[in-house]
Amino acid sequence: MSVRARQLRCRFEGEGGPVDALRGVDLDVPRGAFVAIMGPSGSGKTTLLHCAAGLRTPTSGTAELDGVNLAELGEAALAEVRRRRIGFVFQAFNLLPALTAAQNVELPLRLDRRSPDPRRTAELLARVGLAGRGDHRPGQLSGGQQQRVAVARALVTDPEVVFADEPTGALDIGSAREVLSLLRHLADRGQTIIMVTHDPVAASYSDSVLFLADGLVVDRLARPNAATVANRMAALVESAERAANAVGVR
Ligand SMILES: Nc1ncnc2c1ncn2[C@@H]1O[C@H](COP(=O)(O)OP(=O)(O)OP(=O)(O)O)[C@@H](O)[C@H]1O
């Protein structure tokens, strides 16, 4: 599934006044591409992911999946697209504490009134390194294990596009590598992957990196390697800090 956005703007009414999280962002991700989104904290990465996936309505601009403008879908059709065609890994995992790991993974199928196949659930848990943990509840799992349950849950419907918000943020190096290799494999098979990350090594698994700063796309990098990504990020963070200091001085 291709993902496209044009001139996305998103304004939040914050306590200290309005915040423009996105100020005109374009996104073009062809089917089967793996794109990483990076940028300093607060640059709009999560907001972009939510708008592109139809979880949030932008203030203006358009988000399209396979050429269909999400704003033109009714609530029911949009919910169906989200249930059947999109997988989303939330930054805060969003697991249900009363359900086991396996039940959490199967939830998107049950919400779609489909019967889960326990073998497929077990296989997915094994692929994220959680073989034999299916009957544990989130409270009995480490943060990294919970994050891997969240990744397995996003994949259970075999979605055409996976949006992942820092899917390796809580993982040790070995588990992160497993999850990233899995995402890379899915992209090579034709699933589209859009991943927010702070980690240059994670970004190096992608086909291209989009850099955001202050709600705008400020750079792009094709065929990234970790060192080049780290250099670009360092430059971006430095200029964001310089801009913040300049505002403070004024
Ligand atoms: N619900 C909200 N209400 C008010 N302001 C918000 C809301 N969500 C995000 N923002 C603001 O919008 C801006 C962009 O937030 P966003 O979470 O998209 O950034 P981010 O790049 O994902 O940050 P991080 O790397 O810290 O997760 C920030 O200034 C944030 O404080």
Describe the structure.
One of its GO terms (molecular function) is ATP binding. Keywords: ATP-binding, Nucleotide-binding, Transport. It comes from Saccharothrix texasensis. This is Putative ABC transport system ATP-binding protein. Residues 3-239 form the ABC transporter domain. The chain has 250 residues and is α/β, with parallel strands linked by helices. The chain has a single domain, classed as Rossmann fold. 38% of the residues lie in helices and 26% in strands. It has helices at residues 45-52, 75-84, 101-111, 118-127, 143-155, 173-188, 200-203, 226-249, and strands spanning 3-14, 17-29, 34-38, 60-65, 68-69, 86-89, 161-165, 192-196, 208-213, 216-222. It has a six-stranded mixed sheet with strand order 6-7-8-3-9-10, sandwiched between helices. Strands 2-1-4-5 form a four-stranded antiparallel sheet, with helices on one face. The longest helix is centred in the last third of the chain and has 24 residues, at 226-249. The protein is globular and about 55 Å long. Adenosine-5'-triphosphate binds at residues 12, 14, 19, 21, 39, 41-47.
